[in-house]
Structures are given as C-alpha cells and as structure tokens.
Amino acid sequence: MNRHLPSTLFDKVWDRHVVHARPDGYQLLYVDRHLMHDGSAEGFARLRTRGLSVRRPDLSLATPDHFNSTSGSSIDAIADPHKRSLVERLKDNASRESVAYFFLGEDSQGIAHVVGPEQGFTLPGTTLVCGDSHTATHGALGALAFGIGSSEVSHVLATQTLWQRKPKALRVSVDGVLAPGIYAKDMILRIIAELSASGGVGHVIEYAGSTIRSLSIESRLTVCNMSIEAGARAGMIAPDDITFNYLINKPRSPKELAWDRALRFWITLRSDDDAVFSKSLSLDAASIKPMITWGISPEDCLSTDQNIPDPESMCSTAERQACERALAYMGLQPGQPINSVKVDRVFIGSCTNSRIEDLRVAASIAQGRKVSIPAWVVPGSGLVKRQAEAEGLDKVFLEAGFEWRHPGCSMCVGMNGDIGSRGERIVSTSNRNFIGRQGPGVRTHLASPATAVATAVLGRIASVDQLEVS
Questions:
Q1: Is 226 exposed, middle or buried (0-12, 13-18, 19+ CB in 10 A)?
Q2: Which end of the chain is more exposed for a tag (fewer CB within 10 A), N or C?
Q3: Helix 81-96 and helix 41-49: axis angle, to 10°?
Q4: Averaged pLDDT, groups of 10, the chain, 470 residues long
C-alpha cells in the first residue's frame, strides 16, 4: 500500500495539471486561464504565421492596460501612434479569435491583475498565466499564477499548455496583529527586505500564518503581487472562507451546482500539516512598521523612521558597491533620515495598490487635507473607478488636490506617456523602483497608499503618524 506523501498547496495544484513529464525534468502543464493585455501582439502574430488559431478562446480574457492613456477613456486619448496601434491590435486579435475583450471606457476594462480577480476569472486551484511578471498577484486566491514571455504566450494560445520545470516551495509565515496604520504593502516590502531580491529564486512562495489569514482578498493580492520582486516564480495563499465569500457573486465564478462542486474541491487546497518546504521565513507582525524603499531594488527598503544606509557598513565589497551605485542614482546621502527626503510627485495606482480598499485607505487620510506636490490617483479598473465615485472618494481626492485619472497601468511602468521628468523623485504605490522604471532618470520610492498620501501632503517622505505632529 502506498504511503500518503505530504504535499504543499503548490504541489497539489501543480501535480494535478501535469499532462506529460520528460526525462530532462520539464513538465507539460495544462493552463486553465490565460490573461492578455496590449503587449500580446507578438504572440498572436506567431500564431498567424503558423496558420494556427486559439485553442480555447473560452479560457482567455483580454484587456488593454499597459499602453492606454489614463488621461482619457478612449483610444483617441493615446497620443503615441505605435501604442495606439497595439491597443487596436489587441481588440482586433480578440475579435478574430473570439476571445472575450474589455473595451476602453467600459466598466470591466482595467489592469489585467485587477480585472481577473474582480471578474471571477481567477479561481482557486487553477493555473493562470499572462505575459506580465506580476501575474503572481492571482495566487492570492489559491491559483498557481505566473508570468510568461511572448513565445510562451503563443504556445499557450495554440495548445493551452506550457513546458515548465517544477520550482521548489518556500513558506513565509507572518503571525500576530499588525499595528494600526500598517498595511499589506508594508508587510510585503518587509518580507522582500528579509528574503532579498533573489531569496525566492527557483521557488513558489506560500504565505501563511495568522496575519495572512486575517487579510482581506485585496490585501492578499498586494502581498502575492510582489512575490516576483523576491525572485519567486509565484506566490500563493490557501483559499478559505474569505476567498469563497469574495468569489461567490463574481460574474465569471461558478454558479449553482457548479459552485457547490467547486467549493468541495477548493476546501481541500491547503498544505498538509507535515508538508516539507525547502526554505522558510517567519515574521512577527508587530515588528512591521511603515516601509519605503531607498534604492533601486525593492529589497532596498527600510522603515520611514530610519536613516539611509552607509555603504561603509556593508559586509562585502559587492554590497558596498551596489549601495554606492544606488545612492548615486537616487541622489541620497548616507545617514540621512529617510523622512527628511523631499519628494516631487506621488503616484497611487498599479496592480499592487489600485483596488477599492487601497483607495478607501488613501481617501480616509486625504480627507480634509491638501497635497503640497502633484499627486495622481489611478483606479485599477472601471469597476473600481465607478465604486469609488459612488462612495464619493473621487471628490475627496479632488478637494485635496489629487488628480483623478482613468484606469490603466499608468505611471507604474512608464510605457504610456505617464512618466516623471528626469531627476524627479516620486513616491509610488507600484511594485518596482528600478532605474528608469517611471521614466529616464526618475527616482522611485515604493510605499503603501497611506504613506503616499502622507508624503503628498507634507512634500517629503512621511508616515501617517507624522501628519498629526506636522
């Protein structure tokens, strides 16, 4: 009789999707869901060159997000002809292949990683891919979700499968109660600082512990979104009642008897008590403070009450040189209090922090205050925008001096005209602070929506508690 082998959540989802295993270690995975955005033109072009069509258009969903302008809601708002053509080609490709497509200006359109969960397209226990590195976001619902390249996009379009090597499993446990004013973005920035930008390479992270279980789905989405910034292939959280209650009335969730069948499967999606992880990290939630990045990697992170690090304090020559390069690009001085750094602009948005919960937090802090520097709020989808406006959040932002924009990736990726100026310092709720990420020569600091609003009000890096003493 075969002895039961303990399995992680990741093992359970991966193993049930293996179609074929090769002797060289590669395994052919079945893909349950394929999200596409306006960068998918090359994948469709490869398909047409080979005379192929989309194998399962019913399992695909397309929405423009990277290249559309957030200054308007129509194709005409896109000033760059090439970017406009990419959005148009996505619509044409989706129409030709009978793939569901969300048009610019309709409520369902938005950032792919916001749209997928809010539509119920993302489901527990599924495999989901997208030609975007932050596809890990969807693991918040118990899916195995990861980004793929353009050649892999065409492979999935044609076959609904993908060759992959199975990663290892890494568990990050956070237990305890977060202090007031500490949010999911602070938590994941702290996790990345602990793991490093390469700590998750070759792994899928499972987030566990009482703090993770207490998070809303929107906060879980923020955590899983940035798994890639620790080098991980994906991030996952076991589905539970919070997950099921979130999904039950979504447009594309299972209905009636199909829901009951799905639920019976979903409740099995958890790591066995004796499951083995190749690495683990444990954190006390009470130790997490408002976090912000200072350098050019998400791992270059500290709390808002700390000082900029000194390269001379680094343990190795490589670390010292990396710190020196980061400080030179960012225009910062060793030992400088991070909360003394003046900021030129604030951006609230991206697939990390543009959902209704994020906007509610931001608006609650902006209420009755005025920003002292240019600041944008970009909702993650038309549905988020409509909900925010129904709650009057847009009026709060406008009265505080924020600019209220249309849905899209916007200044997170700087591909759409929404960029900063050379030398400009931006506090951003997005996920990457790489050199030039928000425009050539732009200096980016990653933070939570709460810290972003406090910064916009004071014109310098600040946490919310500093608003009360300013």
A1: buried
A2: N
A3: 50
A4: 77 98 97 97 93 97 97 93 95 97 96 98 98 98 97 97 98 98 98 97 98 98 98 98 97 97 98 97 98 98 97 91 97 97 98 98 98 98 98 98 98 93 97 97 98 98 87
State if pTM tops 0.90. Answer: yes
Retrieve residue 356's tokens: 């209704």
Q: Count each helix (H run) and each strand (E run) in the chain, helices first.
A: 15, 19
| Residues in contact with 100: Cβ distance below 8 Å, sequence separation at least 6, in sequence order | 57, 60, 61, 62, 94
Residues in the chain: 470
> What is the set of domains in the chain, with CATH numbers?
9-279 (3.30.499.10), 290-462 (3.30.499.10)
Dihedrals phi, psi of 296, to nearest 5 degrees: -120, 20
Query: Is beta strand 168-175 parallel, antiparallel or unpaired with respect to 203-208?
Result: parallel
Q: For residue 392, with 0-12 CB atoms within 10 Å meaning exposed, 13-18 middle and 19 or more buried, which class applies?
A: exposed
Amino acid identity of residue 84, one-letter, is: R
Instruction: Please work out, in degrees rounded to the nearest 5, the angle formed at the alpha carbon of residue 214 by the alpha carbons of 208 and 220.
Output: 65
Contact 347, 362 (CB under 8 A): no
**Locate tokens 């005379």: which residue?**
51
